[in-house]
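User: Could you go from structure to sequence for me? I need the amino acid at each position, not a summary. Structure tokens:
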């Protein structure tokens, strides 16, 4: 970004876009720039990122500071969220880059309201539930608001597994995902809440974090809720009872991990498959193992080359957590991310060039793709209920390791190891 464009961005702010690769959670995650996302600031989570032990940093998204976000409507009534620099934030680490470096100026971005409305009208018919085609809207003059209610209701009640076709309009175009059902649900709910509060409050703090999907052409994302306990120490009795029941009725209680969301690209059909948290709660242990198999399967073959890197990362993470005294990561999630666009085999004569960093070939979808070993990312996210002895205001101080989270990691390692062993038979 040039100095002139950067100055313009700082002056006018950054229009936040929906982050289309959110597959779980209930907080609204937004796209700030190509490499940066943001989410509403929760003091406890903010404190965690600021005081993160050095050994844990490679297992979490990079913290990039705080912005002030305001809810605005333009002359046409489009809903906009605009992020402005928060110059008074003393918590931003010196090592973090300027949060506006990789953003785009407000003037160049689409209005959110238009984008969400148009994509909803056009693309809901591209979704199919459990592989079956969706019928078209019967009532074409139905209002957008009513349509949104209908789609929301269907997602919540029925469509726990959805398929969405990605299409390229040109031979060298990258397939684009306009939205996924879960991220759109979170966006709609958050916008509505902010709109209702706009008369009383119009300044919100959002935390900036690394976008873990930005390098990938077609990100495949698995969101796993970790641990045998999900409620924080400050939970009300009602909230505690609800969370305990969810754990008891899912794989959280038995293996310390449950599926909270998933999107995976199936190259045989050109579709992304989405699985939401409501489906994840219903999975038995065999179902959970099958879902992991589906996540690492391209629709044509099991991506065996991904399993060893994931296992190495999980084992490193386990060792780091075992050294974390008094931390409890209640309701935290684990993300596993890889690129659904498969890499092309390197020809022997290209190996020397590849070592020098110039070995790129055209991928199956017609765009340049690096031929290095597969990049798999495994990170911990969501720390709104994390606690440790350094949080002075906490009434409960835990001793030792987070055994529930580590128990989940151990079982996840075992299941993926079984998958790897079976795949080599």
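Assistant: Here is the amino acid at each position, in order:
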């Amino acid at each position: 970004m040039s100095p002139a464009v950067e100055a313009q961005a700082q002056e006018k702010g950054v229009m936040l876009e929906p982050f289309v690769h959110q597959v779980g959670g209930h907080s609204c995650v937004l796209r700030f720039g190509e490499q940066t996302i943001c989410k509403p600031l929760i003091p406890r989570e903010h404190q965690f990122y600021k005081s993160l032990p050095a050994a844990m940093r490679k297992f979490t998204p990079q913290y990039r500071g705080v912005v002030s976000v305001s809810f605005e409507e333009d002359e046409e009534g489009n809903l906009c969220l605009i992020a402005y620099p928060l110059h008074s934030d003393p918590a931003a680490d010196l090592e973090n880059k300027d949060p506006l470096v990789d953003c785009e100026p407000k003037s160049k971005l689409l209005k959110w309201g238009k984008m969400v409305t148009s994509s909803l009208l056009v693309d809901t018919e591209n979704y199919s539930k459990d592989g079956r085609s969706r019928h078209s809207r019967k009532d074409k003059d139905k209002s957008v608001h009513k349509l949104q209610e209908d789609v929301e209701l269907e997602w919540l009640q029925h469509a726990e597994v959805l398929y969405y076709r990605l299409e390229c309009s040109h031979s060298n175009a990258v397939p684009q995902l306009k939205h996924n059902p879960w991220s759109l649900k979170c966006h709609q709910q958050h916008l509505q809440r902010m709109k209702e509060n706009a008369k009383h409050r119009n300044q919100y703090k959002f935390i900036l974090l690394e976008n873990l999907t930005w390098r990938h052409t077609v990100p495949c994302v698995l969101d796993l809720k970790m641990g045998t306990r999900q409620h924080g120490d400050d939970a009300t009795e009602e909230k505690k009872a609800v969370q305990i029941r969810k754990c008891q009725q899912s794989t959280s209680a038995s293996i310390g991990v449950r599926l909270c969301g998933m999107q995976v690209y199936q190259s045989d059909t050109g579709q992304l498959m989405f699985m939401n948290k409501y489906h994840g709660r219903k999975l038995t242990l065999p179902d959970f193992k099958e879902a992991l198999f589906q996540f690492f399967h391209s629709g044509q073959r099991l991506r065996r080359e991904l399993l060893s890197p994931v296992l190495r990362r999980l084992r490193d993470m386990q060792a780091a957590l075992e050294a974390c005294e008094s931390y409890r990561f209640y309701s935290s999630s684990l993300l596993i991310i890889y690129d659904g666009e498969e890499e092309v085999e390197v020809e022997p004569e290209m190996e020397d060039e590849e070592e020098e960093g110039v070995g790129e070939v055209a991928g199956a979808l017609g765009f340049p793709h690096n031929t290095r070993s597969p990049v798999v990312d495994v990170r911990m996210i969501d720390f709104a209920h994390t606690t440790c002895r350094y949080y002075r205001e906490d009434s409960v101080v835990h001793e030792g390791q987070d055994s529930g989270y580590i128990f989940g990691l151990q079982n996840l390692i075992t299941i993926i190891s079984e998958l790897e062993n079976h795949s080599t038979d």
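One structural detail worth keeping in mind: The first strand starts at residue 14 and ends at 15.
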